[in-house]
Amino acid sequence: MVEVHKGTELLHIINYLAGVYSPAVQNSSYRKAVDEWFVNFKDHPVLDVARKLPYNDFVDLGWCIQFPDYSITFPEKYGYFDQIVDKNLLANYLTLSTEFAKASDFMSFFDSQEDNYSKWENQFLTRLREEKPLQALGNFYQIPLRQKIYFSISPMGVVLRANIFQAEISPENKIYAPVIIPFDNRFIDNESKEPNFKYSRVSLNNNVWHEVSHLYWEYLNAPYRDEILALKYADSLSINFKTFESDAQNTYSYIHEIIADAVTIFLKKKYIGVEEAEEHLSLNESYGSPLYRKVVNLIENEYWDNREKINFQEFTPQIIALIKEEGQ
Fold first, then answer.
1. Which residues have C-beta within 8 Å of that of residue 308, sequence separation ≥ 6?
2. 199 in helix, strand or coil?
3. What is the tens place of the pLDDT at every residue in 37-67?
4. Alpha-carbon distance 32 to 49, whole Å?
5. Closest to 272 measured CA to CA, from 188, 190, 205, 196
6. Which of 17, 31, 125, 280 is the most exposed place for a label (fewest CB within 10 A)?
7. How far apart are CA 250 and CA 288, in angstroms?
8. Which phi and psi angles does 111 have, rounded to 5°?
9. How far is residue 182's CA from residue 26's CA, in Å, rounded to a whole number?
């Protein structure tokens, strides 16, 4: 499924006006349209709340907002968001966001962009059909995801992101596994001043493999989560993963990244090229982690040829054993 999601696009626009983003939103015809439509709302109270957010991942909360009436279903749990930011601030962010939407007539803006949204959605959908990155992932993991992947096209987005706790944020939409797909000139072949979602071959496969692997890993590691949270591991790169007060949660987040990129590198070697995969792997190693190569090698030597006999969930204990050994 490929769509511009109303809720996440609303929050992307609010965060853009608040200056939350780093790096900056791409300069485009769409950004100009946003500036013109919302010019009188740059002092809205929601922008002050948005500036208290550490980064833009919180746009996932847009799934809590219903359209067109702007009602909010406040979640009992916020995934890990309320481990980073006070829950009351998140609730205030949502409430003020809907007030901003009403005051600015966000739905009329959204409707005015419908032709553009359809064009951009079709661009990405066409590339998915041409490259088939999801089929490669299915062949790799050998187990259904059980959620419908929802590629959330965002002309105002700045980072790729998989929503791994959709069931907590929006239980009524738990059948979806959202992935935010931003407009970024780095991901297309020719620089564009208009949002363009014709991702290049390498960018499309790399980004889909990586982000959707986060969704797979979150689902597949569930039987082993306590064991993963108990792992003790640190290297020169992992020390930068200090989002949470809990060391266990920081390590869990780091391993999430290791698995997603190790799978991506392995698939890149199989479907794109050995040189491209090695370049990607060497870059990761330069950041200070030897674990990427060890996991890639484990996948290649112990999993790939046996994947029809043992799926990735069943293979997970071997990955845990490797990390445990490396952490000693």
1. 142
2. strand
3. 999 999 999 999 988 887 666 888 999 999 9
4. 24
5. 205
6. 125
7. 17
8. -65, -35
9. 9
